[in-house]
Amino acid sequence: MTSAWSRRTFLATSTVLTAAVGGALTLATPRAAADSASSDDAYAALRATWTALILGEGFSPTAEPFKSRLAALGTQARGWRDTMAPADGSLWPDAVYADPDPDTDPESYGFSAKMAESFIRLNTMAQAYRQQGTGLTGDSALRTAIVTGLEHLNSQVYKAGQARYGNWYSWQIGAPQALLDVCVLMYDALTPAQLGRYCAAVDHFVPDSTVASYTGTSTGANRVDLCRVLALRGVVGGTAAKIALARDALSPVFPLVTKGDGLYADGSFIQHTTVPYTGSYGSVMLGGLGLLFALLKGTAWEVTDPKRQVVFDAVENAWAPFLYNGLVMDSVAGRAISRGEVDDHRRGHPILASIVLLGRGASAAENTRWRSLVKGWAQRDYYSPPLSNPSLSLTGLARLKSVLDDTSLTPLPEPEGHRLFPDMARATHRRPGWAAALSMADKRITYYETGNGENLRGWHTGSGMLYWWGDTFANGQYSDAFWPTVDPYRLPGTTASRKVLANGAGGDWGAAMPDVNWVGGVTDKKRAAVGQYLKGLSSTLLAKKSWFFLDDTVVCLGAGIRCQDGTAVETTLDNRNLGPVGNAPFTVDGSAQPVTRPWSATLTGASWAHLGGHGGYVFPGGATVKALRENRSGRWRDINTGGSTETLTRAYLTLWVDHGQNPADASYAYQLLPGASEQRTAVRAADTGWLRVLANSDDQQGVSVPSLGLTAVNFWFGGTVGPLVADAPCSVLVTEHTDGTATVCVSDPMRARTSLTLTWNRAVSSVLSKPSTVTTATTGSSLRLVFGDLSGTRGATQTVKVRPA
User: Fold this and answer.
1) Which of 86, 79, 10 is nearest to 44 (CA)?
2) Statement: residue 33 has pLDDT above 50
3) From CA 115, how far away is CA 109, in angstroms rounded?
4) Are the C-beta atoms of residues 597 and 649 closer than 8 Å to each other?
5) What does the alpha-carbon distance between residue 91 and residue 560 come to, in Å, rounded to a whole number?
6) Band of the pLDDT at 296, cuts 50, 70, 90?
7) What CA–CA distance (Å, rounded) separates 331 from 770?
8) What is the number of other CB atoms lying within 10 angstroms of the CB of residue 653?
9) Cα 533 to chain centroid, rounded
10) Helical pair 175-185 and 30-55, crossing angle rounded to 10 deg
11) Is residue 474 within 8 Å of 482, Cβ to Cβ?
12) What number of other Cβ atoms are within 10 A of residue 450's Cβ?
C-alpha cells in the first residue's frame, strides 16, 4: 500500500528551507511547515483512497474468485513486461502509435488508440505491482519497466507541446486516466520532476477550458470522465484548484435535461445527442460519479451540490428498468452491442457494482435498498454469474461479493410494470416470468449508432425491435453470438425492406433519424399502448406499428405498410437464437415441425405456433406466416472492424410475414406470449373472443380485451374506434376496474397538441380525479374529456379516474 510517510510528507514535516525573494535562504516558520504538512497529508489521503478504489478492498487474495484473477493479472503483467521493447514510435512492437500522416481519419484513430493502449498496459503492470497475490507484488524489475514505459511515452508522444491526432478521446480520457492511475499507484517510485512532466502533459491535452462549457464532447459520461482526469491531476500534482474545478465541473451533469445529452425526467439517458445509451455511456457516467463521490467524500472538496440527488434518483428511475437478471438490455447499449468480448450480462455487472459504490454517498435507506436490488439481480443471473465474469474488475468483483455475502440483505425481486421512455423512444415491460423491451426511432432519436468501425449493421434496431427474456430461460438470447450471426434484416419485431444496405448506412454517430413525430404511447404503469410511425432507413418504406403490452402477452399490429424499393418487405415476428445445437421443438396448430436444418415452410392459415423452451405465438383470424430453421454463421469482424475473425455458427428459428415486393397497404396481427406452454398457447388461440382487434389501419390501431376491461387505441389521426372518439392524434388506454371505477389514460406522442378532445361513449356518474389541464363533461351516455396543452408533457401520460354509471 502507499506509505503513510511519503517522501513529500516527510520533507513537509521536517525543517523546511525555502527560497526567499532575492535568493536568500530562510528557515520556514513552524506554522508554515505545519500548513504544508497538512496539505500534503490531504493529498496522501486522496492517493490512498484512490488506490483502494481502483485496486479493491475487503477481499482475501487467497480466496476465489480473487486468487485466480490475481494470478491472471500477474501473468498478463509479466507478458507486458517481457515484451516491452521501447523504440521510436512504439513501446511494444504490436502497439505502434507513431502516425506517419497525422490527422483524424480512421487510420489515425488507430494510432491514437495504440498510444492510449500503451498507457493501459502500464496501468495493468502497476496494478500487478501493487496488488497482493499476483506473483509480481513489489517486483523491482516490474517497477523499473513501468517507470521506463512512462518516461518513453512522455518523451515521445504524450507530452506538453505535442499535437494530437486521431481520436480526441484517446488524448483527453483514455491515456490520461491510465497515466494518472499509474502515477498514484507508483507515486513513491517517481521523482518530483517526472511527476511534474506527466502533469504538464495532462494539462496540455486536458486544459481547464475543456470543462468551461457544457457542450460538444464535454457532456454526460464524457464530462464525468474529464472531471476524473482533472481531479486525479490535482491529486497527483498536489493542486487544490484542479480538484475544485473537477468537483464544480460535475454540476452540469446533475440537472435533468430536456434536450441533448443527459438524464431526462422520464428516465431516459442520451449521449451523442441522439442515442439512447443507459447501458454503455450511462454505465460509464454512473461508475465515474461513484468513484468521484467516494474519492472526495469527507474532504475539503466533497461533492455537495444538492442536485446530485438527481443521480441517486436515477438508479431506479433510469438504470433499474433496463436491468434484468444481471444483464443490461441491448436496446440502450448503442454501438456496444457489436463488441464481442462484452455481452449484455458482462455490460450489466459493472452497473451493479457501480450502484453498490454509489450507495456509499447516498442515504442509508437508499444504500440498503440498492444493495438488495443488486443482490437479487446478481443471484438470478444463472446464465452468466457476475463472480465468473472475466471482464469485471477486481473492484467490481469485491463489491458484488460483499453484497452476495451480506446475510442482512433480502434480495429484491424484479420490479413489475411498464415503463415508457418517450424522450428516447424506448419502452420496457415486466411481468411475472418475463420482461420485454422495445426500440424505436423518431426525429430526435437515431435509428442506430455506428462509429469507429463499430455496429456496422445495426440499421434496423430502431425499427420496432422487440426484445424479450424469461425469468429462468432465454437469458442468453442476445448474449450468445446473436449480433454477428442474426440476419440483420430480420430483427425480431421489426418491419424492414430487404433493400441491401451498406455497412454504416446512414452515417456515423447517430446521424440518421426519420422525419416522424408520432412515436411513443400511453401507460397506466401496468399496461401500455405504444406506437411507431415507421420510415425505413435509406428506404421508401412506410408503416404504422403498434404494440399493446398486457398481462401475459404483447399484441402486435401493423398497417399501412408500403414501399417502392423494388424489394420484398417483411415483418419479423420473432427470430430466436437456439444456440449451437438448436433442437427446440416447434409446433404449428398442434403439428410438430421438423427439427432438421435447414428447414422452411409457408404456414398458410396458421392459428398459433409454439417454440419449446421459449413461448407461443397466436395469429388472430389465421395468418400466412413463413418459418425457417437454419444455421447462420458470422464473425464479430463483420459488424465491428476491431472484432474477432473467428467464424461462429448458431441455429435460429425465424417467423415472419412476407408483405411481398413493393406492398401498397399491407398489414399484420399477432400475439407474442413469452414463456407460454404449448397448451396455454392453444387455449388462447381457441378463445377467439379474448382479443378483439377494433382497428388496424393507416388511421388507427386498437384492441379491446373484455376480460381485462381494457380498450386501447393509437389514433394516428382523429376518428372513432370502438367506444372512443378522438379529434386529433393521440394514444389512449381505458381500463374498467372490478371496483366499479375506470381509468382513462391519454398522451400525445407528437407533443404538439394545444387541445385534445376525447369522448368515451360510456355513461359516467362521477369524475373522481383528474389532472388540472383537463376539463370534463358528461352528456347522456358519454364522457367528454378536453385536455389542455399536452405539448408540455413531453409525451407523458395524463390520467382521469371516473365512476361509470
Assistant:
1) 10
2) no
3) 10
4) no
5) 60
6) very high
7) 34
8) 24
9) 24
10) 120
11) no
12) 28
529 phi and psi angles, rounded to 5 deg: -120, 120
Q: Enter the pTM of the model.
A: 0.91
Contacts of 394 (CB under 8 A, 6+ apart): 55, 56, 59, 66, 69, 70, 73, 131
CA-only gyration radius of the chain, Å: 29
pLDDT in tens, 649-689: 999 999 999 999 999 999 999 999 999 999 999 999 999 99
pLDDT band of 12, cuts 50, 70, 90: very low
All cell numbers assigned to 689: 373472443
User: Is residue 475 within 8 Å of residue 414, measured between CB atoms?
Assistant: no
Provide, rounded to the nearest whole percent, the portion of the chain with pLDDT above 70. Answer: 95
Residue 552, judged by CB atoms within 10 A of its CB (0-12, 13-18, 19+), counts as: middle
Per-residue model confidence as pLDDT tens digits over 239-259: 999 999 999 999 999 999 999
Q: How far apart are CA 782 and CA 773, in angstroms?
A: 20
8 Å CB contact between 108 and 79 = no
User: How far apart are the C-alpha atoms of 524 and 80, rounded to whole Å?
Assistant: 56
pLDDT in tens, 42-52: 999 999 999 99
Q: Please report which helix (H) or strand (E) contains residue 263, including its range.
A: strand 262-263
The C-alpha atoms of residue 367 and residue 538 are separated, in whole angstroms, by: 47
Q: In the Cβ-directed half-sphere of 140, how many Cα atoms lie within 13 Å?
A: 0
Output the pLDDT for position 792: 67
How far apart CA 427 and CA 279 sit, in angstroms, is 14
Q: How far apart are CA 723 and CA 729, in angstroms?
A: 16
Cα 422 from Cα 750, distance rounded (Å): 10
Active site residues: 222, 272, 281
Q: What is the amino acid identity at position 530?
A: V
- List residues bridging with 783 in a β-sheet: 760, 778
Element spanning 649, H or E: strand 648-661
Q: Where are the beta strands (DSSP E) in 727-789?
A: 730-736, 742-747, 756-760, 764-769, 774-779, 782-787
pLDDT in tens, 508-523: 999 999 999 999 999 9
Question: Sign of torsion, CA 503 508 514 518?
Answer: positive
> Which one, of 1, 4, 11, lies nearest residue 191 by Cα?
11
Residue 405: φ, ψ to 5°: -85, -5
Nearest one of 557, 550, 590, 491 to 673, comparing CA atoms: 550
Phi, psi dihedrals of residue 563, rounded to the nearest 5°: -165, 145
Please return the burial class of 500, using the count of CB atoms within 10 Å of its CB with bins 0-12, 13-18 and 19+. exposed
